[in-house]
User: Fold these one by one.
Assistant:
Number 1:
Amino acid sequence: MTLIGAGVPRPDAADKVRGEARFVDDLAFPGMLHARVIRSPIPHGRILRVDLSRVATHPRVHCTVTPDDVPGENVVHVIYDDQPALASDVVRYVGEPVALLAAEDRESAREAETLARVDYEALPAVSDPLEALRPGAPVVAVPAAAEGRDESPNLFNRMRLVKGDVKRGFAEADVIVEGEYRTGYQEHAYLETQGAIAVPEEQGAITIYGSLQCPFYVQGAVAKVLGLPLAKVRVVQTATGGAFGGKEDVPSQVASLAALLAWKARRAVKLVYDREEDVLTTSKRHPSVVRYKSGAKKDGTLTAIEVDFVYNAGAYQTLSSAVLWRGLLTAAGPYRVPNVGIDGRSVATHTVPNGAFRGFGSPQVIFAHESQMDSLAERLGMDRLEIRRRNALRVGDETACGQKLKESVGVLETIERARELSRWEDRLRAVAAFNASHPHRRRGVGVSSVLYGVGLGAKSPFLDKAGAYLKLEADGSVTLAVGTVEMGQGLTAALSQIACDALGIRIDRLQLTPVDTTRVPDSGPTVASRGTLMSGLAVLDAVKKLRARILDASNGLGIPEEEIPARLNEIARSFFLRNLDPAVEGWAHAEPVDWDPETGLGNPYFVYSYATHVAEVEVDLTTGEISLEDCVAVHDSGKILNQGTASGQVEGGIVQGLGFAVTEEIAEKDGRLKVKGFTTYRIPTIRDAPPSPTVEFVEALYSPGPFGAKGLGEVPLMAAHAAIARAIAHAIGKAVSAYPLSPERVRQALAS
Ligand code: MTE
Ligand code: MOS
């Protein structure tokens, strides 16, 4: 097992560092046209007239597309099919696509866009989810199949979880704390904006090249909008410059729009969003309002929690039901809670549809549950790490939804290691000493523990599968294809290591091919931190099959088993000469899950990852500015396959968490987002990152996982933001209840 855990350099790194990786905008096809999307300027209105006559007569415009041109169904297929590809009668958010154009070059396309005339009758809009739930609020458009519609015309989904007896639990409590927590938008801020190229092929087929996370979602969406069989739609992922969940559902829209134009033009069409367009019109993290009540005994033991949370879903469902579901199942944190009542709602408003973002509906409730743990500790005069330690889940315990944990529960270890590595007690003393000697500055320390259900779980168990294709070339090198994508998180490295380690070959003897829907069966989406786990298992399955054939062949050649790696080229040559089949397919699916929507109880996930972060911040009392001085991050994601990429995930997650909690903000007024690309959206830079964070992994192995691995990708952000927020609260000695903790908010809190 020499390649597992080692810091093998990422096979995809050199090209990216040299600028040689080819992103979608680097590609061109013969006769390729450039697309622009004509979008709604208002949050809600009836379309009275779409006049594209001046667009169409622009000398460089090749064609335009309106809903009448849609050959299949006019929808962006995600979960509920409520979102039209092009709005035909009503627009429901600023930026909603209304019509399309394709021109010979990008500049002409931009020019022609300004020639479009669309008349609207403005209708009343609602942008606040609580307002949208009030009787008489303007109605968005909730599909008939939605889970909440009977209660309110704007309620997309309502999900509940009830365990034990909450009333009794609070009666048994010695202290009860309550709080309301709000979080705002977070934009993914991937460096590469959304983009796709659609290329019409022979025999009525089409190929999509795109920056995306879920090739099979895009395949389904394009097939639906064009009215084609799935077999006529091929999707190839291009090098993807970050995604963070933002390329889970949105590429289905981008690719569908490009495909509509390409289909009509019978030419290749490129659609790449501008930054401003991307930030304004694509999904973000759901803004939230979370109300929380927690009870504990004198010794800190939790007796009950009651949670009510509302997520602003935007104008269409997209992924909101899945995002809400994860919020529901994360709201209790990594703790034993005997009596639980959780009620979550996702609400339609006339704003951009929100979707997946690293953590997928969990960071919002984590801010709340970690604030509550600190409030309980404070009321009990108990150490904040200690109250977490006492309640932390262990093997054999039941989660809030009644799932008995059979193995691989490392949360306690993450708490204990975080205490040691952060020198918790010393640090608290040092911070107090600092504060005593600095009249205008305050330091604070915060902690946050989290759990994360890996994979899609019982919300869509049919998606937790993966395929792999593995071929022994005639010279002993190996070609590998999988159906989950590299988007920066290090999948290429992890999967190459798994395959090469098991075959005993060097990393540079294996080529992982670009993800292509024609190479492997539907492997589900690259989300929910499932990539390494699920594709890793599929790769191992393929390796097992190939190794059996290699063993056969080597027996025939009289090569002893231990010499196979060194003589693989000889064996491969014999495959070729003896007409043996050198290719295999691997397949994997997750362990069974189950969940009861009536009670919210069951075994929703096959395994959980855990983490504990400790953050130290300094607050400037005059300006309210915050600097993140240090962070200690301890994760249990089972076996770590590559220390380098795993640490990179954690360091990146800390910075993204800092953005969520402190710097990133999008104001919204009357359904209009007040944001101009990165000019006004402030993501943290390297200067804001903690100078030398401590990252450690405790490896509570998951026996069905590849080498015992679970999932890591999203967890660092989930743990980081709340530790930072709690450190800020500790520093200023005031409650903090809304993100982002901008200088203005911090000054307000100080003044309160
Ligand atoms: N890291 C980088 N560099 N870029 C990304 O887009 N996406 C995150 C996380 N880390 C992301 C990332 C999200 S949202 C997910 S779901 C996981 O990576 C997916 O990767 P995995 O399943 O391989 O862990
Ligand atoms: Mo990640 S939000 O599950 O793409």
Number 2:
Amino acid sequence: MARVAIVTGGTRGIGRAICEALQADGMTVVANYAGNDDKARAFTEETGIVAYRWNVGDHAETLAGCAKVAEEVGPIDVLVNNAGITRDGTLMKMSYEDWTDVLRVNLGGCFNMAKACFDHMRDQKWGRIINIGSINGQAGQYGQVNYAAAKSGIHGFTKALAQEGARFGVTVNAIAPGYIDTDMVAAVPENVLEKIVARIPVGRLGQANEIARGVSFLASEDGGFVTGSTLSINGGQHMY
Ligand code: CAA
């Protein structure tokens, strides 16, 4: 039986590339998305991957959504927490909603999805959870106290859950992408982005499939001894 994988925020950008990579690995892949029905329809037509709509930042919606996936496709063996939003601005300009929205979706979404998926993984003594963090959660970023805090939280969440999952054969890892050529990065003002790219040693933005390759490895049978780790894929922009 093919493993069932779910990728949150899976119909666009990095999420889409991850869906396609796991599908190529022979998994039965399901995408989750929150808002853009047109993009989701086009995604399903082009890839044959079913997309389910709910907001991962909402606990009850997430439990219900994952239960529906389990019933219609099968229980989830591989969880990729990729969904994320930005509400950039300096602290002085950032509203309380900008703060809570980003925390709720980017970090709360990981908790909600893990709650929905972990029991099955534990019971079958096999599971893979891969959380998409960020270089900006590792190094911070001007104008992103909300996003950096949420992504940094993901890295702590990963290490804590990895300790809980280990005895059940559930690995939990993170990938910390740098600046990848997606709609999210395209929204950064051009003059600001130019300065950022100038600080990337390989001299370019990353491609979504360069993140997906890392997820593919962490989700594989061969990844069984890797847990609690963070794989940085950032063109050398942040090394530590
Ligand atoms: N360090 C120090 N000072 C900085 C700075 C930095 N990195 N960036 C800007 N400043 C300074 C500016 O020089 C300016 O100072 P002066 O007025 O004295 O010249 C001041 O801060 C205000 O800068 P802006 O004009 O840019 O301010 P703004 O309010 O118009 O915009 C901002 C602020 C929204 C944060 C904007 O700078 C921005 O969008 N920055 C990019 C944030 C970013 O990298 N987001 C990543 C999105 S992609 C992503 O998140 C994916 C991922 O995981 C990597």
